[in-house]
Design a protein that fits this description.
alpha/beta; 5-stranded mixed beta sheet; Nucleotidyltransferase, domain 5; 41% helix
Length: 350
Amino acid sequence: MLYPHCVVYEKFSDCHPLAIMSKLILGIDTSCDDTSASVVADGKDICSNIVSSQESIHRKYGGIVPELASRRHIEMIWPVVDEALQSAKVKLEHLSAIAVCHGPGLIGSLLIGCSFSKAVSFARGIPLVCVNHLEGHIFSCFLGDKQPEFPFLSLIVSGGHTSLYRVDGFGRYKELGRTRDDAAGEAYDKVSKLLGLGYPGGPAIDSHAQEGDRGAVDFPRPFLPESLDFSFSGLKTAVANYLKYGQPVSVNDICASFQQAVVDVLVKKTEWALRKERVKRIAVSGGVAANSALRRELGRLAAEEEVEVFVPSLPFCTDNAAMIAAAGYHHYMIHDTAGLDLNPVAYLPL
C-alpha cells in the first residue's frame, strides 16, 4: 500500500537479501517541509526512498509555514517510515542503525524527526546516529554506481544554503565560501513571488526561462572577487527595481536573464575554487542542482577545465532521507553514535 501524499522515488524488489549481506541504514529527514524516510545499504545502494510532499499545503501562502510543516510531519512520520521499510522488504530488526537529520533546519520540523528516531532506537535497541543536513547533501553524490574520489569540491545550492566546501574525506570538510545573505534557492522563490509565478520558485522560473532570452536584461553579477562567498539579495532587489522602472519585457525574458545571472555567479565561483584548491572533481547538490541552466553551464566548465562533475539524479537533489542514510552509514562505521539526549539544532555549521 502506498500512503496518501507519499512518492516512491526508488524501489527495488531484490533488497531483502541485503539485510544479511550489508549494513542497512534507515535515514529520516524532517529538516524542512518534506517528510522523508529511506533504507540505504552500505552508504550507496538505495533500497527505498519515500517522500511525503507538503507543496500543496504551503503553495497558497507563497512559502513554507513552519507551524504547518511540523504538524504535517507528526501526521506522516510513521506512515512514511513504514512505507520505506515495506518498499525495501526489510523490518526494523534488519537495520544496522537509524540516521536522523538533527540540523540545520526548521526547529519544529527537526524535533519531530529526532523524537521519532530516538523513540524507535530506544524501543528496539537500534543504534542512533545524527547527521548534519549539509553533510547529507555532500554524500548525496555517493548514491548510485559512480562516486567521486577524494578530494573534491562540493557546491551545495538550495533554498537555505549556498556554500562551497573542499572535501578531503569523511568528516574532513573545509568551508571555502558561503552566502552572506540570501541563498540561491531563496532568491529564486522571492523573484518568483515578485513575478506572480507561485511557489516553489525554482522549477517555475526554470520552466519560463526555457522560452526566454537570457541576454534581454543585464542583471548584476555579484561576483565578490575578493572571496569565494556568495550574495544574492542585491540581485533580487535588481529584479524588483526593474519591474518598477525598467523597459517592459516578457516574463520569460526576465526569468531567463535572472537565472543566467545566478548561474554565472555559481559557476564562476566554482571555477575560482577549482583553481585555488587544485582539485579535479566537483560534486553539486541541493535543490538548485536540478536547474537545467546550472547543469548546462557546469557541463561546459567541466569540458573547459577537464574536470569531473557529479550531480545526483533529480529526486536526490532536493531534501531526501537517502542522503542522510548515506552519510549516517559512515558515522555508524566509525561507531559515532548519538544518545537519547540528542536535540535538534536550527543553526548547525558543518
